[in-house]
Amino acid sequence: MKVIENRALKDEEKMELQEIQLQEAKHIAEEPDRKYEEVAHKLVIIEGDLEDYRFETE
Fold first, then answer.
1. DSSP secondary-structure letter at 31?
2. For the CA atoms of the chain, what is the radius of gyration?
3. Is the pLDDT of residue 9 over 80?
4. Would you give the distance in Å from CA 14 to the centre of its chain?
5. Regarding predicted confidence, which is higher, 50 or 58?
6. Which GO terms describe its molecular function (predicted)?
7. CA-CA distance, 48 to 45, in Å (whole number)?
8. Per residue, what are the HEC states of the chain?
9. Longest alpha-carbon distance in the chain
10. CA 56 and chain centroid, separation
11. 37: confidence class by pLDDT, cuts 50, 70, 90
């Protein structure tokens, strides 16, 4: 019975570690998307500023 309990405990610890690794992998995979969205947003703002500048200089 003790062997089964030890194995169950090891399996549970392994699952917890894998869940943590999965969350880290998701974070790493999503980071480029977040950065892209941030840069795209900044680009829209800069393009708007450029249009305003062009309008003011005309």
1. H
2. 25
3. yes
4. 24
5. 50
6. actin binding
7. 5
8. CHHHHHHHHHHHHHHHHHHHHHHHHHHHHHHHHHHHHHHHHHHHHHHHHHHHHHHHHC
9. 86
10. 40
11. very high
